[in-house]
Amino acid sequence: xxxxxxxxxxxxxxxxxxxxxYKKAIxxxxxxxxxxxxxxxxxxxxxYTPMTxxxxxxxxxxxxxxxxxxxxxxxxxxxxxxxxxxxxxQDNWRWALSINMELDDFCQVFEDAIKNGYTILWGSDVSExxxxxxxxxxxxxxxxxxxxxxxxxxxxxxxDAPKAEAQKAGPQPQKVVTPExxxxxxxxxxTTDDHAMQIFGIAQDQFGQKYFMVxxxxxxxxxxxxxxxxxxxxxVRAKTLNILVNKAAISAEFKAKYGIDxxxxxxxxxxxxxxxx
Length: 277
Hints:
The chain contains 8 helices and 11 strands. By secondary structure, the chain is of the alpha+beta class.
């Protein structure tokens, strides 16, 4: 209710220290129910602050980039090279920017990253009938019944998953969506921002069907492969919202095409010529 009230305001009251009062009010509620955010904490016998803990992980946030592929914004090429756009999804509460790639290029990044030894943080729709609770994600070339039950409801309270031809056992022809079909599903909210997972490998079944190997966070009892999911490239193409990947995993061709800087590129050393006396 506090957030809804603040959202309706045209101007905000400000405290003497310059902070908007609604932010202080919301923080006070958090502190009453959850306690104050600790300035320091212990981890494996060592005391950290959030910043010192972050630094000891050895992760450089600048080395990572968010990528997406939709048609309602210009692609980040040509006169828009390097321009990022905010993906309109509820979970993008920071309004973070993503480089907007052509769909075929976007899908190629998945292949390149895995082959170059990098994993991918995958933001995707998992409420589709083809994303089964047996550990398989397929985008079959058959009519799929959209689920009105969220993935969390299915997982947490055992709500019935939708029954559809896409959930039949065994391999079926996969549908390769066009950029226009992908855009229509996003605009019509048939593709929603549901879940984040980690793509870490590529596999192939006995029928020759390729799959991306996905680490899910639903526990090792989820599905029939101890928490690992196998998702077809066609599903990834149709239902990915965005990915986060190390820039070093992206090809030099795509870096140049989309204006992606390379944090690992060697710095040219300046040389000076000695003047002759």
